[in-house]
Amino acid sequence: MLRPRIIPCLLVHQGGLVKTQGFKSPKYVGDPINAVKIFNEKESDELIVLDIDATVHGVGPNYSLIAKLAEECRMPLCYGGGVTSAEQAVRIIDLGVEKVAISSAAIANPALLGGIATAIGRQSVVAVVDVRKRSGLFAKGYEVCTHNARQAHKVDPVELAVRLQEAGAGEIVINVVDRDGEMKGYDLELARKMREALRVPMTFLGGAGSLEDIGELVGTCGIVGAAAGSLFVFKGKYRAVLINYPSSAQKDEICRRALQFTKN
């Protein structure tokens, strides 16, 4: 039986594990390898690790870190950061990673996804689309952004996601910048639009503050990936650093929400 995937998303900045708000003000929350060990113990469905420095500084993937993560990780691992070629993606997969995430390079050149899919298999190619609401008094809708939300692209996110799907992405991750670190819930309106438009697996990131938020997402969209950062590294209103993950019983309840969606 297919089940929703509940996925911690870890951000790496200057070698450490951090959490941001609105893609800004990274707060150090620990060592990435130690975090992986804890998520192993908690039997996480998957894990996403994103190096938020690589693209901004124009450097390639950190293969040394990737090798350490893959060696420790006992769950499917998706890694992103600085990937601009099929050769880099092959090397990452060879280190033991299951999925490779590409964002700005894929948006600049969607055909890149096809080449990477040929090299490592479409199921291992993940396109990440960072989205935010347009700013300005009369602005409406959303825009796509890259380079840690420093560059804006006047393109409709849903249309872009479909284009990346057609180009070769085996999964699409939608990351909502406005909700990053806010812990006030997913953008369900955007999630619904993406769910209706795409055929490949989807994962939504940005805004989860409780397991109820995840339940609302799968109740709205069905069998999707529900990713979160702050929810799984902070605890309580003062955001004390404490890595956590739902129990089997809590995950079963979330799955029931997804099953209800499919019946409707």
TrEMBL record:
Keyword field contains Oxidoreductase: no
Keyword set, alphabetical order: Amino-acid biosynthesis, Histidine biosynthesis, Lyase
Molecular function GO labels: lyase activity
Record note on quaternary structure: Heterodimer of HisH and HisF.
Name of the protein in its database record: imidazole glycerol-phosphate synthase
Catalytic activity: 5-[(5-phospho-1-deoxy-D-ribulos-1-ylimino)methylamino]-1-(5-phospho-beta-D-ribosyl)imidazole-4-carboxamide + L-glutamine = D-erythro-1-(imidazol-4-yl)glycerol 3-phosphate + 5-amino-1-(5-phospho-beta-D-ribosyl)imidazole-4-carboxamide + L-glutamate + H(+)
Lineage summary: Bacteria, Pseudomonadati, Pseudomonadota, Betaproteobacteria, Neisseriales
Gene: hisF
Protein's pathway: Amino-acid biosynthesis; L-histidine biosynthesis; L-histidine from 5-phospho-alpha-D-ribose 1-diphosphate: step 5/9
NCBIfam families reported in the protein's UniProt record: AglZ_HisF2_fam
Protein's UniProt keywords contain Amino-acid biosynthesis: yes
Species: Jeongeupia naejangsanensis
Biological role stated in the UniProt entry: IGPS catalyzes the conversion of PRFAR and glutamine to IGP, AICAR and glutamate. The HisF subunit catalyzes the cyclization activity that produces IGP and AICAR from PRFAR using the ammonia provided by the HisH subunit.
Transmembrane regions listed in the UniProt entry: none
Top EC group: lyase
Membership in a protein family: Belongs to the HisA/HisF family.
EC nos: 4.3.2.10
